[in-house]
Amino acid sequence: MSDLIIGIGKAASAPDVGKTEPVKEKRRSDATFADLLQNKIQKINSLQVEADQAISKVALEDSGSVHEAVIALEKASISFSTMMEVRNKIVEAYQEIMRMQV
Amino acid sequence: MDFSNAFRICASGFQAQRRKIDVIVNNLANINTTRTPEGGPYRRQIVIFGSEPITDTFGDVLDESLKLVTVDRIVRDEKGAKMVFDPTHPDADNKGFVAMPDINSITEMSDMIMANRAYEACVTAFDATKNMVLKTLEMGK
User: Which range of residues forms the domain containing residue A55?
Assistant: First the structure.
């Protein structure tokens, strides 16, 4: 996913070959967006792992409460759907750029 | 995340109502208990709920108006025992009366239904919050 974003950044900065300064700046800001996305994905992944642990606690160890497991699951599910929404927007933007007439 | 406050409050509600159900089940199970470690018949137990503010930046903004429900303490009913005439019982006194726990099963059952309904209300609130978040994600489609 982050490669894709960096790819978009490269494509967007391609016309500015002559000027080095703005390209650098643009690429740096794109990298921070990729970093942000990666951070978010890691956070969402940790929520998934939390939900996994809560479920195994209830199912295997017979400790921990059911409602906590379900709440962890719901949190993971909601954060995942939020991430999917963001991803859809990014892919949409990418496709919009690819459709552009050169 | 902004919705996790609602989820945390729901979770505290679940926890509190489950604890209440535990205590009610305890009362119902011990309705005929005449021997306890502290001596005498079993005493009915009552759950007392308290609230504690969510310690969160969001909670701070709202001047700690968001509160989690907690089980403050579980107290023993100070009502005396119920004297039942049963001379054949090993714990009967010399007049033939046995000190039985003063537990009314109907009161306990209605308390149980109330705890159940409160739990269901928490589940509904949880679902409503979740639906709001999911509806927000559908925005702009």
Answer: 2-98
Burial B103-115 (b: 16+ CB within 10 A, else e): beeeebeebbeeb
Q: What is the pTM for the complete model shown?
A: 0.74
Q: For chain A, what is the domain count?
A: 1
Range of the domain at B109: 4-132
Q: What's the structural domain count of chain B?
A: 1
Establish if B141 belongs to a structural domain: no
Cβ contact B129:B7 at 8 Å: yes
Predicted complex ipTM exceeds 0.90: no
Would residue B10 count as lying in a domain? yes
| Closest chain B C-alpha to A67 CA, distance in angstroms | 7
B85 φ, ψ to 5°? -80, 110
Count of A-B CB contacts under 8 Å: 28
Query: How far lies B116's CA from each of A34, A86, B10, in Å?
Result: 47, 39, 14
B130 contact A CB<8A? yes
pLDDT digits (tens), chain B, 141 positions: 577 888 889 999 999 999 999 999 999 999 999 888 988 899 999 999 999 888 766 556 655 678 889 999 999 988 878 899 999 999 888 999 999 999 999 999 999 999 999 999 999 999 999 999 999 988 877
Q: Which of B14, B18, B130 sits opposite A74 (nearest CB)?
A: B130
